[in-house]
Automatic annotation (TrEMBL):
<dbReference type="InterPro" id="IPR003615">
    <property type="entry name" value="HNH_nuc"/>
</dbReference>
<feature type="domain" description="HNH nuclease">
    <location>
        <begin position="1"/>
        <end position="71"/>
    </location>
</feature>
<keyword id="KW-0378">Hydrolase</keyword>
<keyword id="KW-0540">Nuclease</keyword>
<keyword id="KW-0255">Endonuclease</keyword>
<dbReference type="GO" id="GO:0004519">
    <property type="term" value="F:endonuclease activity"/>
</dbReference>
<protein>
    <submittedName>
        <fullName>HNH endonuclease</fullName>
    </submittedName>
</protein>
Length: 219
């Protein structure tokens, strides 16, 4: 349940690049790499003014990350930059509320089971019907517990639970411009518009599928 609470506490975004991500694709990253040992670990803790007993596996050192950011940072020593210090400070500030949310989630068995279904169908989707049912369950349960809902649980669910998101603005029968009040893009009927991740036809904003966040070079 801490995984879901972590995802919500960081506004359903990668802590590094701030790109919206889906819960099903989120990677939990250790800001100070847990692979560090010996002098390297001591140097990292000193670098960021952390005590020698700092728990690398605690929520204070965990953030949600997209795959590219996580693999890009890898096991390299976290540099002494304001961004790293800010992320560590933010993680420490949010840790208590994440623990409290996780504890509330733990009292709702339906949430726990639905989360398991979402994670089991991260890639590939093994049971689409079960995934949709889990998404609808969470769409009902989460607002009752947190006062807000998670809208980015899985690419497929984003399409199913919010089918009326996009409003046409202009265009032809082959390609139309759409908007949702915050952003916009183009939906096309040609197969070249088909997203390889979520199966939608966009909308596309440059190389980004706005339905699922997939970045894909145009054909």
């Amino acid at each position: 349940m801490e995984r879901l609470a972590l995802f919500l506490a960081w506004s359903e975004q990668c802590a590094w690049c701030r790109r919206p991500i889906f819960f099903s694709e989120m990677e939990v990253e250790h800001v100070i790499p847990k692979s560090l040992q010996g002098q390297d670990l001591r140097d990292a803790l000193t670098l960021h003014a952390l005590g020698e007993n700092y728990d690398l596996n605690a929520l204070e050192n965990l953030v949600p990350s997209c795959g590219p950011c996580n693999s890009g940072k890898g096991k390299r020593l976290a540099p002494a930059t304001p961004a790293i210090s800010l992320i560590l400070t933010t993680a420490q500030e949010r840790a208590p509320s994440i623990r409290a949310a996780a504890a509330r989630f733990a009292t709702r068995q339906a949430i726990e089971k639905a989360v398991e279904v979402v994670l089991a169908n991260a890639d590939p989707v093994l049971d689409q019907a079960a995934l949709i049912a889990a998404g609808k369950q969470l769409d009902t349960e989460l607002p009752e517990v947190t006062g807000t809902s998670a809208r980015r649980l899985h690419p497929l669910l984003d399409l199913v639970l919010d089918p009326d998101r996009w409003a046409p603005v202009s265009g032809t029968k082959h390609a139309i411009s759409v908007a949702d009040g915050q952003t916009g893009g183009i939906i096309g009927s040609d197969p070249s518009f088909l997203c390889s991740r979520c199966g939608s036809h966009g909308p596309w904003n440059g190389i980004t599928c706005l339905s699922c966040g997939n970045r894909e070079a145009p054909d």
